Amino acid sequence: MLKCREVVEQADAYLASELTSWQRFQFNLHLAICGYCRRYLKALKMTQQISQQLTVSSQPSDNDISALVAMIQQDEKK
Ligand SMILES: [Zn+2]
Prior knowledge:
Number of helices: 4
Bound molecules: zinc ion
Number of strands: 0
């Protein structure tokens, strides 16, 4: 079983689909039982998507940022 620290270390590779199928399996297994790592991965994914968008568009407006904050807050209520 993976430890939370190992999940955090492999998270980038996981999102980039660079893990082997066995590593992915173990990763998903950990996510299934660990809400902390699920939240971490979700936040990481969101950050990556945003930074990708930022490289194509200009600086985010205040509206974009408050929409993002609302999205994260909504997510935490679940
Ligand atoms: Zn964990």
